[in-house]
Every structure is written in structure tokens, then in C-alpha cells.
Amino acid sequence: MKTIYEKYMSLPIDKGLLCLEHGDITTPYFCYPVNAKPIGFEGCILYCFLPEYGEMVFACNPESCADQNVYPLAATFKDFIRLILACGTVNPVEQIVWMDKNKFEEHMASEAKILTNEQKIAVQQLQRELSLLPMENPFEYVKEIQKNFDGSKIQYSDEYYEVAGMENPKRVDTQDEHLFEFEPVVFEINCKDDRS
């Protein structure tokens, strides 16, 4: 039995219409986790699975407006598709990380005006072929996923830590290897007051 992801991948829909261009990570950006499994791309933004987080879907954005470059969008691929059905493309879903509810609603209104007929047809076909309903409250859903997310298992490259100016937890501090430890030396200082 095919998974939702396998069914999605086999659909003859132009995934680019959903802002999910197909491709491999040939030239990774600094923030792409080293073991990311691509779902699709929107410019430099990678949408992917990370094996240590199971079915959760992530966005990896080197030009993020948030204080993080990698963040979850959906607990499962099924929910990810339902978010796209609700928003028309993946773009508004990815933007939620830095938006408040008002900004999101404004963004959705402006996106609705620029969605092409081809994009609308692709979303309808996606819904029909996968038999899924749009997510009812996409903003609240994504914010809840992101609220207490623990990103400590994300596997970044050494370049990520250099670019982000963060300490690399994978690097062992080799400076300590060459230091010797001596027993403490105590000096007694006799301070006589010779002014008397």
C-alpha cells in the first residue's frame, strides 16, 4: 500500500505550481541539514523530511525572516498537503514562522489574488487524487507545531555553525588536549609593616 507521500510523488501534477519544484540537493545552502530528504524547493527554500523526526515536514530557509533557518511545518506529510490545500501553495505555510495572525490573513488575501488558474486546478487535482480536506486553521496548526519544537536533533554541517556564529557541538576542543595540570603551588607572603 502506497503512503500519501508516494501517491503524491506519482501524481502527474506540476509540483512547481504548488511551489514545490522537484530536485536534489546539488548545491546545499549552509542551513540545509546534512541528512535532509527533499520533498521540493521554492527558490532556495528546501522542504524536506529529517530522519530523526519521522514524518514531520520542515522548511529550511537560508534567507529566513525568523531567528531560525530550519523549522517544522507539519507533523505528517498528510497534514502538509492539507495545509497546501488550505493555502493554495506552500508559500503561505512557510511564512507563518515569522507572522502574526493579521499578517498571515493579509498574505493569504494577496496570495488569493495572484494564484493562477493552473495553480487552482493543481490544488483541486491534488485534493481529488489524495482524498484529503484542507486544513481548517492552518495558522494555528503551524504555530502549535512550532511552539515547543526541540531542534536539538537537527544535524547541521560545520558551515552552518560558522555562518551562524554559533559554537559547533560536534567539535571537540583540541586546545585542552595539550594542557598539563600541575598541583597548586601556595606561596606564603609575609607582609610586615616596617613603618613602625
Task: Describe this entry's structure for a reader.
The protein has helices at 4-10, 77-87, 91-95, 101-114, 117-130, 138-147, 158-164; strands at residues 37-42, 45-49, 57-60, 70-74. By secondary structure, the chain is of the alpha+beta class. The relative contact order is 0.15. The protein has a four-stranded antiparallel β-sheet. The model has no long low-confidence stretch (mean pLDDT 89). Helix 2 (77-87) runs antiparallel to helix 5. It contains seven helices and four strands. A hairpin with a 7-residue loop joins strand 2 (45-49) and strand 3 (57-60). 35% of the residues lie in helices and 10% in strands. The chain has one domain (4-167). This is SMI1/KNR4 family protein.
Provide the descriptors you would attach to this structure in a database record.
single chain; 196 residues; alpha+beta; 4-stranded antiparallel beta sheet; 4 strands
Q: Output the strand order for the largest sheet.
A: 1-2-3-4
Q: Which regions are unreliable across 5 or more consecutive residues at pLDDT < 50?
A: none
Largest sheet, described in full? 4 strands, antiparallel
Over the alpha carbons, how many angstroms does the gyration radius reach? 25 Å
Q: How would you describe the oligomerization state of the chains in this entry? A: single chain
Q: Assign an overall shape.
A: elongated
Measured by DSSP, the beta-strand proportion falls in 5-15%
Give the distance, in angstroms, between the N- and C-terminal Cα atoms.
99 Å
Number of helices: 7
Structural class: alpha+beta
Number of domains: 1
Strand-and-helix sequence, N→C? HEEEEHHHHHH
* Mean pLDDT figure: 89
User: How many extended strands?
Assistant: 4
- Helix fraction? 25-40%
Protein name: SMI1/KNR4 family protein
